[in-house]
Amino acid sequence: MNKLKRTALNVMDDHVSEPEQPLSRPLLNKRGVAPAAGRGERQSRSERQRMLRRRQPSYAHLQAARHRGHEQAPAIKPNVSLHCGWGRLLFGHTFVNEQELAASLLEESQGERDIAFYVARPHVVVGHDPQRLFLDPSDSYRLWLNEYQPRRDRVKGVRVRRLRTLADIEQVNAIYQRCRMQPLDVDVVMDKRNSQEQLYLLAEDGHTGAVLGAVLGLNHGLAFNDPESGSSLWSLAVDPACQMPQVGETLVRHLAEKMQTRGCHYLDLSVLHTNQAAIGLYQRLGFRQIQTFAVKKKNAINQALYTDTSPLDVLNPYARIIVDEAISRGIHVEVEDAEHNIFTLSWGGRRIRCHESLSDLTPATAMTLCQNKWLTQRCLQRAGLKTPAGVMLADGQDPAELLETLGPRLVVKPHDGEQGKGIAVDVRDAETLRAAVETAQRYSSQVLIEPFCQGDDLRVLVINDEVVAAAVRRPATICGTGQHSIAELIERTSRRRAAMTGGESTIPMDSETRRCVEAAGYQLEDVLAEGRSLAVRKTANLHTGGTLEDVTTVLHPALREAALRAARALQIPVTGIDMLVPDPTLPDYVLIEANERPGLANHEPHPTAQRFIDMLFPTTRQH
């Protein structure tokens, strides 16, 4: 079990024996006017206010707050829970005792993620069923809205609005799945999208209308007649592929201002204690940590929060997505080398070793063809497919000669490289070409040089002679703020990509990045104008910070057929076929590479891992 670095505080019993006395009223003078408070009285009143703010949320304190207010204040609703789309939020301080709270939490529906928040004595709640309940390792933060400082300016290009349609929910769920979060129940959210107590907000691109992020706000006064007029923030997420800065901050600020105008006094949230990026954002906005706790029911969704660290936790997202699918079907998983993502799957006497999506079912000859880009082109050309007319650089040959024979714009690749390492795209002069060749030779003794082909970088994922997904890969791009240098923007974007991909996607600050920035007329020290986008890599490889735009549903049949023909020519069961296309809805293409170990996690929510396991263990296929 995880050893949490915090303990529950002992507090008074949650049953209220008698209400707290209201603050005493000042005596009136002969004119019926309260005399001005002296310095000592003002200090005393201020100190009482600070003490009230420091109190831990509990049933007793909530009832006391009601008695401090108006005598006709409505009664606090008991045992309150709200379904938020991903599960129920149980307001722990509305439950009279811990036993009722534990019983309600254990009623969690399958496939959902309930949370009991504002739990004053979590050890008592968990003690009612320690085999099925656990203390969530999250910290709680509060923003007092009377102290909130709004931005002096608005983030340009980002628009915030309420969630309205099924299409909105689909886009939000796609973001949640990419962020490994619980998707929303469509029926629940559609039913509550106009609710006043539950506010679903979207951030969208002001030009394209694409959804960039989402957040949920709850109004406690409307939810259970909260005498403290509180509110809370849940499910904040920003698309990992989003290039615009400060989208998360914009959502939080918009929600805080909405709650402020509705008379709420504070905005609370719960965040995993290891999520330093989110915690840093909240602290910059004025959130301060409070002493309250969350309790959850143990399930497959939150298993990592209450189990010991296992080799599965070390696997990268490309291996983990396969392992999780296998476990869900009862297939035994043996992690042989967690650091290098090698594992063996066993079912019914059948054992298959995998390195991410590369398995024993991939022939060694197919691997050789894919790893050697020169052999890949020759194989695909024999199959009648379109490929660039590349050449291998001969020993001692001056690469500048190829600017005349292949064309004025070239691509340089290590002949057996992967993950975009050592590749230079759109090289136009002899000096840059020679430098690019030297870089490529660090990764391979042989270098392939091709004519540059204009177009979008399309990846088509083929599994077992079926096109499962397709996406256009975009090069790493930054968006200017008018305040930060290009180098700072690259570092921030790279850090965000790394956090969202388990460290698998970063933007290298290398010579290729500098070349791309300088080719666009900038230096790394320059401040990029607000709202201006700049591609800082020529290649669209995900490992070097590239992003994906799903085009599976609009992929032209000719491109689909070309990918299948390429996989058959290579005789490979699982592959990522890379093409350059003017548009994924048109039939024109040039095949440039085939990847023998494509990242299945990059194409969620398409059923990539499901089709992979279907291929390995057909009898476990779920119809």
Structural overview:
The two termini are 36 Å apart. α11 (317-328) crosses α19. The chain has 623 residues and is of the alpha+beta class. Helices cover 30% and strands 23% of the residues. The strands form 6 sheets. A 7-stranded mixed beta sheet has the order 6-7-8-9-10-5-11, with helices on both faces.
Query: If strands are numbered along the chain, what order do they take across the biggest sheet?
Result: 6-7-8-9-10-5-11
Main sheet characteristics: 7 strands, mixed
> What's the total helix number?
19
Helix content: 25-40%
How far from one another are the termini? Answer: 36 Å
Shape type: globular
Mean pLDDT: 85
Integer-rounded radius of gyration? 29 Å
Structural class: alpha+beta
> Which stretches of 5+ consecutive residues score pLDDT under 50?
1-34
- Proportion of residues in β-strands: 15-25%
Structure at a glance:
The protein has 623 residues and is α+β, with helices and mostly antiparallel strands.
Would you spell out the secondary-structure blueprint of this structure?
Layout: H1 39-54, H2 59-68, E1 81-83, E2 88-91, H3 98-105, E3 115-119, H4 122-127, E4 133-135, E5 138-144, E6 158-162, H5 166-178, H6 186-192, E7 198-205, E8 211-219, H7 220-224, E9 230-238, H8 247-261, E10 266-272, H9 276-284, E11 288-290, E12 293-297, H10 303-306, H11 317-328, E13 332-337, E14 342-347, E15 350-355, E16 358-359, H12 364-371, H13 373-382, E17 391-392, H14 402-405, E18 410-414, E19 424-427, H15 430-441, E20 447-451, E21 456-463, E22 467-474, E23 477-479, H16 486-500, H17 511-519, E24 533-535, E25 547-550, H18 557-570, E26 574-581, E27 590-595, H19 608-616
Parallel strand pairs: 2-3, 9-10
Antiparallel strand pairs: 1-2, 3-12, 4-12, 5-10, 5-11, 6-7, 7-8, 8-9, 13-14, 14-15, 15-16, 17-20, 18-19, 18-20, 21-22, 21-26, 22-25, 23-24, 26-27
Helix pairs in contact: 11-19, 12-13
